[in-house]
Model the fold of this input.
Amino acid sequence: GENVGLHLPTLSVQEGDNSIINCAYSNSASDYFIWYKQESGKGPQFIIDIRSNMDKRQGQRVTVLLNKTVKHLSLQIAATQPGDSAVYFCAESGANTGNQFYFGTGTSLTVIP
Amino acid sequence: GAVVSQHPSWVICKSGTSVKIECRSLDFQATTMFWYRQFPKQSLMLMATSNEGSKATYEQGVEKDKFLINHASLTLSTLTVTSAHPEDSSFYICSASLGLADTDTQYFGPGTRLTVL
Done:
């Protein structure tokens, strides 16, 4: 599988600032990506997705950027709020993984009021 | 939206006992359900994929006789941790997908925390 079981990197940002969370994926055949948010003790929540035929996708206060050349994905959160504090995971899927998603390491975001 | 529930949310058991965790899709029929395991401050690790009415597909390194998965209906999958030991203590999360396409979003349950004494 593509799972990574490393300890979480952390990111601290001031309330109101923009946050950028990065994710590197390893499978060049992956063609669908999702960002999930996980609050402590809860299951992951869908934030935004992007397909490999796109470089950028915007949602409400969030933007996902995909760079297939270097297999890199980023999540940008505008005007970060205390409620954004959580762990963020990217997940990848592709034709050669069937319908399974494999999760990246994750990043723990802490918003400082 | 699509809602997935898990029961129980937290279970504490003695070493050697078996524990069953239920995963239900409440407002949709899930062709496929997934089981993940998550250790503290780590990522989700896919354990197995289960399709209704067929045997689960386990990821490499996951013991199928240890983690029994049953997907008897389109709204219910169960994970049974047999002869649990302290090293099985973890957060177990299920997800459900509407279809079979690799682009079908997975909807996650709230997770079940298993503590084996």
Observations:
- Residues 1-6 of chain A have pLDDT under 50 and may be disordered.
- The interface with chain B takes residues 1, 3-8, 31-32, 34, 36, 41-46, 49, 51, 89, 93-95, 97-106, 108 of chain A (CB under 8 Å).
- Strands of chain A lie at 10-14, 19-24, 30-38, 45-51, 56-58, 62-67, 72-77, 86-94, 102-103, 107-112.
- DSSP finds no helices and ten strands in chain A.
